[in-house]
Specification:
mainly alpha; 2 strands; Sugar ABC transporter permease; transmembrane helix; transport; transmembrane; MetI-like
């Protein structure tokens, strides 16, 4: 009969735990390193959120996080009452929703298409080429877009001029910003996110496809009735994460990079988003407390989106992130 742990002397329990810890030394080292990383870089900086409720000035130093004048919700009220608030939230929410609608299904479709390819070498080449843009910084992406679309010497505008058409101000026209942002985000992140779905597809039991083939199922029917149901949990987890990062730009989290690089004084009303606004008022205008309030608002909404989407997913599909 197994001995009740509560009846074992405390010293013996400590000794047994220590021996187990030493036996798992390497694994424990990895776990401790991860915990220390989270503690230093994720949890400790959260102490700085207090400046959202204080009149903090950089000259106060770290002590100012706790000694600056307490002003409560003053900065939140100022943010909600800002004349740009409507444009900021509209651009952030609508642009992120559009990215979610168009960017989220494409990696899934792309992964399904890759999985159906019969030539392994071609499949590897296509997959490699597709995820390479993920490693290109948005600065380089902007350089490529500038080379293609600038009105003075861009390749696309030069081609339009040679064909007798008027040049199009794609980079500066505010009516083109959302389309440019969505398409560039898809191009940059499609291949990278498809890796996750390909990994999920590789875990599907091949015997299911063989049985479906014997029963006369077509490839599309196998995808619909076998592949997609088997990777549903992965899709739902990724969807929850994408919804949680909605205010920062969806799966790619690219709202700030695109607003900073593709935005200008002409398309500002369409390009300004919440992450870029936080940077603008925080680092450019040195309004740290105000920027902290706006950033905290973004974080709280993101947390609520994660909790809400996870709850809805568990209710509707039985699958959730936690």
């Amino acid at each position: 009969m197994a001995q009740n742990p509560l009846t074992v002397p405390r010293g013996e329990r400590w000794a047994k735990g220590y021996r187990r810890f030493r036996a798992q030394g390497v694994l424990q080292a990895f776990a401790i390193a991860g915990f220390v990383y989270l503690l230093i870089f994720c949890y400790t900086p959260m102490l700085g959120l207090g400046i959202a409720f204080r009149n903090y000035q950089p000259k106060m130093g770290i002590a100012g996080f706790f000694t600056a004048e307490w002003v409560g919700l003053k900065h939140f009220k100022a943010f909600f009452g800002d004349y740009q608030f409507a444009d900021i939230m509209t651009n952030t929410v609508v642009l992120s929703l559009l990215k979610l609608v168009f960017s989220f299904p494409i990696p899934i479709i792309f992964a399904l298409a890759l999985n159906e390819m019969q030539h392994p070498k071609i499949k590897r080449v296509v997959q490699t080429v597709s995820y390479l843009p993920h490693f290109i910084s948005w600065v380089i992406v902007y350089g490529l877009l500038f080379t293609l679309f600038n009105t003075s010497s861009g390749m696309v505008n030069n081609l339009l001029a040679d064909l007798g058409f008027e040049k199009v101000e794609i980079l500066t026209g505010k009516e083109y910003y959302w389309t440019l942002a969505i398409l560039s985000d898809i191009w940059k992140e499609m291949g990278w996110w498809s890796i996750i779905f390909l990994a999920a597809i590789s875990g599907v039991d091949p015997s299911q496809y063989e049985s479906a083939k014997v029963d006369g199922a077509t490839r599309l029917q196998s995808i619909w009735h076998i592949t997609l149901p088997n990777i549903r949990s992965t899709i739902m987890v990724m969807l929850i994460l994408a919804i949680g990062s909605l205010l920062s730009g969806g799966m790619g989290g690219s709202n700030f990079d695109q607003s900073y690089l593709l935005g200008n004084s002409i398309n500002y009303s369409k390009s300004v988003t919440l992450p870029y606004y936080v940077y603008q008022v925080g680092l450019s205008q040195l309004r740290y407390s105000y920027a902290a309030a706006a950033g905290l608002f973004q974080s709280v909404i993101s947390l609520l989106l994660v909790l809400g989407s996870n709850y809805a997913s568990k209710k509707l599909t039985g699958t959730g992130f936690f």
